[in-house]
Amino acid sequence: MKITKTKRTIESVTKQVGVTGGIGSGKTTVCKIFESLGVPVYYADDRAKAIMVENKEVVEKITQLLGPKTYDPLLQLNRAFIARVVFNDPEKLQALNSIVHPAVFEDSENWFDSNSNHIYCLKEAALLIESGSHKFLDKIIVVTAPIELRIGRVCQRDQVARDAVLARMDKQMPESEKLKYADFVIKNDGTQSLINQVWEIHQKLIDCSSD
To answer: How far apart are CA 161 and CA 126, in angstroms?
Structure first.
């Protein structure tokens, strides 16, 4: 999978900031706080789900890759079928990502362009680093949380067993590896105020944008 960036120039005023973290870290909660400060947020995972049913070229490629059972008669994603096919097949998963990630990247670029009147915008994505799109962002925020707290959150949120959460975690980049790419770190462990951490980063991003 290769993502190339051609539209944005180095003179671009609006800073593009990525937000990522492991499953259950609380990325969405953090982004909602940024949104309350008037910062636009692009939710890459939500947009990926939409693109997989709205983009005809993407639909055709996914159907060719995974077969006709990928979509139901109403052209909605058969998520259970897709999960069964790609969960234990790394090559299929990589092939699927090579279709979806570039399409999401292009979509996010158009979104950034439409929000160029803001000092900075956020792009939230679980696979921000794995997809390579982090290379085209100005700053990276990594949201962290203790693993047991993350497991508990996901079990409650998705109504799934602990083993299922661990299996999903095993397929993600370790938190320690994500932290190597971080310009800012938000600790969502319940001991520190998320609002205060977000506000501090918000001020730093505004200040560095005016330099």
So the answer is: 21
- DSSP symbols for 20-70: E--TTS-HHHHHHHHHHTT--EEEHHHHHHHHHHH-HHHHHHHHHHH-GGG
User: Edge to edge, what strands does the sheet with 184-187 contain?
Assistant: 41-43, 120-124, 15-20, 139-144, 184-187
Q: Where are the domains of the chain?
A: 15-209
> The tokens 């506000």 sit on which residue?
199
CATH architecture type of domain 15-209: 3-Layer(aba) Sandwich (3.40)
| Cα 130 from Cα 188, distance rounded (Å) | 22
What does DSSP assign to residue 174?
P
Please state, as a whole number, how many other Cβ atoms lie within 10 Å of the Cβ of residue 151: 18
pLDDT digit string, tens, across residues 6-42: 444 434 568 999 999 999 999 999 999 999 999 999 9
Kindly report, residue by residue over 101-113, the tens digit of the pLDDT: 999 999 999 999 9
- Residue 87: the pLDDT is 79
Q: What is the pTM of this model?
A: 0.89
Within 10 angstroms of residue 25's Cβ, the number of other Cβ atoms is: 28
Distance CA 165, CA 205 (A): 34
